[in-house]
Specification:
DNA-binding (chains A, B), transcription regulation (chains A, B), TetR/AcrR family transcriptional regulator (chains A, B), HTH_TetR (chains A, B), Arc Repressor Mutant, subunit A, mainly alpha, homodimer
Chain lengths: ~180, ~180
């Protein structure tokens, strides 16, 4: 009756790392929209079946890789203050998408989005909820507010205006979200 | 010394309409990322040179078509109240992207974004500025606030979560942007 645990060490981690490396190389070489699962499997030296089993299709794989440095098991910022937690968390996301490769993979993922919520978005929403809930029922924000007011503008800029992803962006967005 | 005026009637409008129709058909048939300018020219029965001259490349063409119903020369909502103007304006954008074809073209455009600001984004920013400036120096918002707090969440949802583009979204976003 125990919940399934995603293995993250040993052979599993080595395979994952080979797949990630292969995806990054292929996106750089051909552009995200041309990357297929058989191509990744060949480059990574793994069986395509195991990629299909874990991700289902290329969009899901790309979306996952696009955010893997934002490991869902990482520690979230925890300062004891909602404003500072959100700013630090948003800072990690901005930092991630300031890397041109991560933004390119995001754009490739966008082209194929729209059918269902991706793991990446689900993870960000779960994180937003986790941060907001620390501050109990008196928290002035819902997870949706955080997605609309913090994640959406960062992702919008990462896709369309990557040169505007400044270090001051998280602070400005949080100030707008939580007026003093 | 007069400013250049974009012709919008007569033969020019007929050509434009043929190009738009061709783009929409081709996106439906093949997906936005496969559409090329020669393909559009052939389908529309126009010379590829005139498409290249006006748009430069396929991403620019797609981005323009993706928002053509949001004609930059249309009248913007003007109710005499900032909150209502913004909600009506955001409502037009939501309405536009609730159409699956428009959202699909947006996704195709995203995949190719990131090099420079598109006409589409420039137009939305100009509109945001125009609305905000009506309310003079005491307006509690900048155009950037409107882009981050209103346009970004709509576009983010149109790309990744199109089923969440509800009719109540503009009102909720404007309430968050302009607390009462």
């Amino acid at each position: 009756m125990s919940a399934p645990v995603r293995r993250t060490g040993g052979r599993s981690a080595a395979v994952l790392s080979a797949i990630r490396y292969a995806v990054e190389e292929l996106v750089r070489e051909r552009g995200a929209e041309k990357v297929t699962i058989p191509m990744v499997a060949e480059r990574a030296g793994v069986n395509p079946t195991s990629i299909y089993r874990r991700w289902g299709d290329a969009p899901a794989l790309l979306n996952d890789i696009a955010t893997y440095r934002l490991d869902p098991q990482r520690e979230l910022p925890k300062t004891g203050e909602l404003r500072a937690d959100l700013a630090a968390w948003a800072g990690e996301i901005v930092e991630h998408y300031r890397k041109p490769l991560n933004a390119a993979i995001l754009r490739g993922g966008s082209a194929m989005a729209g059918e269902q919520e991706t793991d990446c978005l689900r993870n960000r929403r779960a994180e937003a909820l986790q941060i907001v809930e620390r501050y109990g029922p008196q928290a002035p924000l819902s997870a949706d507010d955080v997605i609309d007011g913090l994640v959406a503008p960062i992702i919008y800029r990462a896709i369309f205006l990557p040169w505007t992803l400044g270090e001051d962006l998280p602070g400005r967005l949080v100030d707008r979200l939580l007026p003093q």
